[in-house]
Structures are given as C-alpha cells and as structure tokens.
Amino acid sequence: MPALALAHDHHVSQPLPLRSPGGPRRGSPTTAPQGVHLRHTAQPQPGKEGHQRRHRRRRFARQTTVHNYIYQSHYISSRRLVAAAASDMGENTQELADHGLCSHPRKLLSCSLFALFTLSLIYFIFYSSPSSFASYADLFDQFKTQRATKNTSLPPPLAWLQCDYSDGKWVWDDSVTGPRYDSENCDMKSTEKCVVNGKPDKGYLHWRWQPAGCNLTALDPAGFLRLVRGKRLAFVGDSTARNQAEALVCYLSTVARPETAHRYEERLGRKFWRWVFPAPHGVSVSTYWSPLLVRAEGHSEDYAMTQEAVVLDALTEPWTADADAMDVVVVSAGHWFPRPAMYYEDGEVVGVYSRPDLNKTDIGYLGPYRKVLRRTLEYISANSTGDTLVAVATIAPGHFDPGRSWNHRDACSRTKPYEAVEAEVAAADAEMRKVVLEEVAAAAAAAGRRRRGVRFEALDVTRLATLRPDGHPGPYLFAHAYDRRPVPETVANDCLHWCAPGLVDTFNDILAKMIVAGG
C-alpha cells in the first residue's frame, strides 16, 4: 500500500453538504418540466438525522486504509464534478441560490447524470462490506505489481544483451569424455562427420567457449524440445546454415527420433530438407538452400562457372513461401557475396563486383549484401503472423592457410585454437559482421515501432569462429578414407564447414539462449 494511503488512514475529511448556497439539500423535490419525471432520493427523517450521522462516522472508523483512500479519491472527484457543473451552467451565485442547480430545463441532463453518479458512490461507500473493499484492494495491488514487474524487467533484446556471448576465449574442458552425439547414423552431410571419417586429433571436441562476462551452458536436447514444442525452426542461407541445422537435428535425435518429412537434392547438394519430431514434441526443423538469399545464376548453380548474375530484388523460394509459418528463423549467408558478380535490379544492371572484363561500375559486394539482407528482414517482418525470432548469423570464416594451396593436406591442419593475441578478425569479415549488426539493429527498431511480434537478434559468431582453425574436417571427408595410411600431399580439403559434433554446436548453444531470452 502506498505511503500516501497509510498517512490518510484516520484523517479523511468529511464531505461537505452537496447543495447550492441557500438552496435545497440535494434529494429534495424540484420542479421538473412537463413530461419529464425525476427520480428523487427520499429525504431522511429529521429525528433520525443525528443517528445516521453518528452511524456513518462509526462505519468510516471501521473501514480499511484502502476504503478511506478510495472514498477520498471519489470525494475529490465529486467536488470537481460539482464545480464543473456549476461552471457549465454559467449562472451567478444569487440565481443559483434562488432557483437551485437543476431548476433550469437545459441543465437537467447534467444534473441527472450527477445525481446518478453520487447515488452510486454513496451506496458503494456506505453499504459495501469491508470484504468488498479488501477484494478491490487486492486487485489494485495486483495491478500495481504487474505494472512494476513490466516496467522493471528488460525487454527480450536488452535481456539478451546482459551477456555478450560474442566475446570470450576457448578453454579446455576436462569434463568432456567424448562427442556430444554419434553422428554416424545422423542425417547430415557425410563430410561433416569427422569422428566417423577418422580425423585423428580429437582435441577439437574438448574446447568450450567461455564468454568474457558470463557462462554459456551446453544445450540440453530434452529441454530444448520442450522449449520449442509445437514450433517450426528454419535455417535459411548457404551451407553454413545447413551445417548448423544438421548438427542441431543430430543432437536432438539423442532423445527423440525425427522423421525426414521432405528432402530435395540436386547435384550440388541439399536444396530443401525438413525433419519432424512427432508428438508430443510437434517440432519441425527445415533447411532452405539460398546462398545469396535472392535469385542468382552462375557459380552457385554450376561450379564450372566463375561468376554470378544476382537479381537483388528477387528473393528466392521456397523459403519466402514459408516465411509466414516460421517461428524461429536462422539466416546465415555471406560466403557467396565476395565473388565476381553482376547485379541486377528492376531489370537493369546496377553494378558489378570484380568483373574487369565488363565496362560496368564496380560497386563492391558490401552494398549488395546490405541491400539483400535488409530486404530479407523486411520480408520476414511483413509476412510473419506470430511471435517470431529471427537470428541473423555473422560470418564464420574459414581457415585455408594462405601459405598453401587449398588442396594441400596441411591447408587447415592446426590441432588447437588460436590464442586471442594470435589471430584478429580479418578486415573483410569485420565489415560483413558490421553489416549484419547494423541491419539487425535497424530491423529490431522498426519492428519495435510497429509493435509487431517479431524479434531480431544477431547470432554473432565471427570472433569465436575465427579462433578455431582446428574445427574443420580438412581432408577427412569420407568414412575411414585414410585408415592405416598417410594422407596424400595433394587432396581435397574442407576448411570452411565445421565438424559435427564440434564448434558448430556452440552456435546452437547460443541460439538456445536467444530463444529462452524471448520467453
């Protein structure tokens, strides 16, 4: 109860008589225009007036603090209503004394409403039981508690920022006794199954990301399925989005067996996959291959081609067709933009990147990347039909050794993470990360202004991924490919994607925290 209410507990002033100076007491008969019937309050008997006044005083003394507080508030409102009614009538004091407040036909409606309000107030104050006031007090306190809770709690984006998971270091975790899950029977790209493929060093499984100002706990698969029960998760973008989705599905399958509801593959890989965890979970996880998020023709469709034709204003299907049915969306795209390309918009060429063979203006790739990302977020915001989390991943760089060719067996053969002083985020990666952070912040601000149920977050993994050159498959791309024999000096390498289990599971640990932060 507020201190003000407590101070007024036994010092509430008694109301003044509700009558005009020199006029009749309210409730006495007045003259009504012909055809109008006023409802009068019975005049108290003169002999009982003193008794009723004493009775009312006793009732006031028994009322609770809330009773007095409510009474005083209504009393002040009544006085203000009287003053307003008198001012509205525009009569002088003498005329009011001679004729009364309600003797003029044109003021009859105002007086009638005032009389009804006052009668209701008198009944509420004098004839309601103390328990009624207690119930109103409880309701009032409940309202104040809810308002206080709402005002003091941080909204989901600010609550999420209480821990900056993007800054920290990798620490060796002796509690890790083996892989989080067995990828051998998981429905994922075989090149990511480093344990099955015989990668000899298992140290990459023991490193844990330690944020600078907080702790990051590992995702609990059973708890995660409860958290997202009945929801649809979508991973949209290039193969890093697919890499993360497949690792998540594999980990969740340790507690519930998923069904592969849809698979669409082409020569270059998996275009669209969907896994469903049936009842009681009702959770679906889908991957949408769209490396540039918009329509493109060239290297992304045919590796024999060396450049792209990118249509900046044509977002791709099928992910756009399903945007209204997504509850959690992870957008991960960036690796395909720093490639030679020609950009189209409104059917016209608007520029190129790294195409000296064409007499066109080189506009770089950061501008097109920003434009595509902005349109993607605007589209999701406009088409989302419920509470949706949109997590946009910053770029997770590869680790091809610049001193070696991409197909050298030691292109990414390091066996432990970099120390913080050993590696900085590359300038190009830092610029792409900046684009993501700025566009996510702008989308979040716009969604807040429109009060839409869409929450935008940055899944900022650039720094933590930069420090992990040991987390890639390298030459171990096929099951038991080099058992009992050395790796050839020239061999295909993957120094871009991540072993699963491995560092990619940290991406999902952070994603789980984001989902929790949003309630």
TrEMBL record:
Its main location: Golgi. It is a single-pass type II membrane protein. Belongs to the PC-esterase family. TBL subfamily. Residues 216-514 form the Trichome birefringence-like C-terminal domain. It comes from Panicum hallii var. hallii. Residues 1-62 are annotated as: Disordered. This is Uncharacterized protein. Residues 15-29 have a biased composition (Low complexity). The chain crosses the membrane at residues 108-126. Residues 51-61 have a biased composition (Basic residues). Residues 162-215 form the Trichome birefringence-like N-terminal domain. It is found in: Golgi apparatus membrane.
